[in-house]
């Protein structure tokens, strides 16, 4: 049941300009710069913010010596304001699509493995059916992609839900998991070893995903659980072209699903080290927002992803 007080707040006090201002304040951390981005004067922006804080009865931002910082209340309002504005943009897009046939835009986020197989295959099929539909694809960690999905910047994500707070707002359709192998260049010195131990690997140079990713956390836990220090020589990147170039040019190693570099493995340029990491990632799947109606273009993208996933798993 809707809260009558909340309904009065939205209908009586909340203004679209305040939503825009909240988003820009979150981006810039400055009333002056946020006002400029929202096409407002600084006094007008300050007044809109004061009116909003008065209507809510809470402080949304702390005034600092240089700029402002959101309170917990402010962070909630910034995220919800972004999602509300994205909904209105989506409504406008949906109306335009219905007027002109299936066109418009769909924004999809993906973790690395499906970005090299499932997602491009689905996008290719979608574009063969709806040539006017513009598709944008972002590849990143699940954590960052889910943040963008919740903020309304993405229509759907192929990834994982990693925290319970997000799970309450999202729908997850599981697809598959990702067994990881240790990948190195062909003729890497360790390829001749059949007695490899984890402490041997800890002394090598590694290519690692950024901190905060689920794979990085599990690699860290793997070394710590065996009483080992983390590898000292590392490069952090998620960019597959950078990873393969580093592997081919050095004795570095990386933990990856083999399918990401299958072409290099088949050609003999890269190889799999004879060591079982025992790392399997949680299932990734298709993530959408609950109680959010997708635009016709985004719905077509979702349906095509499901179609390709079923075909590939059959």
Q: What order do the SSEs take from the amino end to the carboxyl end, as H and E?
A: HHHHEEHEHHEHEHEEHEHEHEHEEH
Shape: globular
Low-confidence stretches are: none
Mean pLDDT: 87
Order of strands in the sheet with the most strands?
4-3-5-12-6
- End-to-end distance: 43 Å
User: How does the major sheet shape up?
Assistant: 5 strands, mixed
> Count the strands?
12
The gyration radius over C-alpha positions equals: 24 Å
Query: What class, by secondary structure content?
Result: alpha/beta
Helix count from the secondary structure assignment: 14
Please indicate the percent range of residues in DSSP E strands (runs of 2 or more): 15-25%
Helix content: 40-55%
Care to describe what's here?
By secondary structure, the chain is of the alpha/beta class. 49% of the residues lie in helices and 17% in strands. It contains 14 helices and twelve strands. It has helices at 4-13, 16-28, 31-37, 42-56, 72-100, 112-115, 118-129, 142-150, 164-167, 198-202, 214-225, 240-249, 262-267, 296-313, and strands at 61-63, 68-70, 105-110, 134-139, 156-159, 170-176, 181-185, 206-208, 234-236, 253-256, 270-272, 284-289. The strands form three sheets. It has a five-stranded mixed β-sheet, with helices on both faces. A hairpin with a 4-residue loop joins strand 1 (61-63) and strand 2.
């Amino acid at each position: 049941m809707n809260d009558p007080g909340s309904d009065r707040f939205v209908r009586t006090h909340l203004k679209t300009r305040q939503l825009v201002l909240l988003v820009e304040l979150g981006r810039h951390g400055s009333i002056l710069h946020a006002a400029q981005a929202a096409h407002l004067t600084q006094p007008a922006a300050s007044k809109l913010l004061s009116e909003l804080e008065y209507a809510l009865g809470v402080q949304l931002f702390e005034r600092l010596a240089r700029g402002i910082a959101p309170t917990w209340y402010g962070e909630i309002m910034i995220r919800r304001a972004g999602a509300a504005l994205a909904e209105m943009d989506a409504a406008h897009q949906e109306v335009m699509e219905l007027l002109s046939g299936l066109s418009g835009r769909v924004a999809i986020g993906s973790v690395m493995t499906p970005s090299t197989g499932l997602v491009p295959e689905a996008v290719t099929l979608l574009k063969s059916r709806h040539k006017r539909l513009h598709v944008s694809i972002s590849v990143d960690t699940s954590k960052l992609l889910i943040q963008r999905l919740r903020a309304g910047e993405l229509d759907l994500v192929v990834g994982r839900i990693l925290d319970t707070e997000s799970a309450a707002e999202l729908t997850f359709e599981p697809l598959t998991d990702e067994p990881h192998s240790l990948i190195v260049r062909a003729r890497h010195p360790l390829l001749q070893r059949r007695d490899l131990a984890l402490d041997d690997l800890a002394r090598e140079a590694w290519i690692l995903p950024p901190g905060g990713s689920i794979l990085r956390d599990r690699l860290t836990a793997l070394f710590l659980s065996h009483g080992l220090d983390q590898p000292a020589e590392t490069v952090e990147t998620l960019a597959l072209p950078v990873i393969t170039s580093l592997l081919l040019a050095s004795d570095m190693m990386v933990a990856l699903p083999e399918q990401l570099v299958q072409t290099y493995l088949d050609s003999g340029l890269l190889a799999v080290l004879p060591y079982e990491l025992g790392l399997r990632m949680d299932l990734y799947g298709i993530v959408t927002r609950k109680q959010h109606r997708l635009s016709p273009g985004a719905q077509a993208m979702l349906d095509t992803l499901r179609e390709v996933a079923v075909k590939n798993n059959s």
